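INTERNAL AUDIT FORM
Audit reference: QA-55
Scope: verify that the stored structure record matches its stored sequence.
Auditor: D.O.
Record contents follow.
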Amino acid sequence: MRSSLPILVAPFKYRDRKPIKVRAPAQSQAAALLTIIQTDNAPILFVACAVFGSSIGNLITLPPLIIHREFDAAAFTKVMGLSGAVTGITSAFGPALVGLVHSLNGDYIVALGLCITLELVAAMIVLFGGQKHDISTSVQEL
């Protein structure tokens, strides 16, 4: 049995961890939002909010990791700055979008459902999108 242990463990030890790093926080946040939609019980709402908040840090650290992996070192600072600007601008519209959907429907069920959908779509884009490419020439033009 001892000699077969490395063969059994190797696929888990050396495989790419990107799917786990993306899927786990996105799924936990989606589940937390779904729980918030479905319950009025205060203790359950507190736990769901804690679960949602506990995975924010993982999602905040993903862009630098993805940029580091997908772009060369010379382009990292420019791409990271652009990513920060785009993230800031799009994050500013999040509350307005949720408020608009709430105003149009009269409750937060559809608005939080939209948040769940957007989160899962973003996770799918990160998991299945993108190829490593050299953009140093296009970044220099910025």
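Auditor finding: record pair retrieved intact. The radius of gyration is 19 Å.
Action required: none
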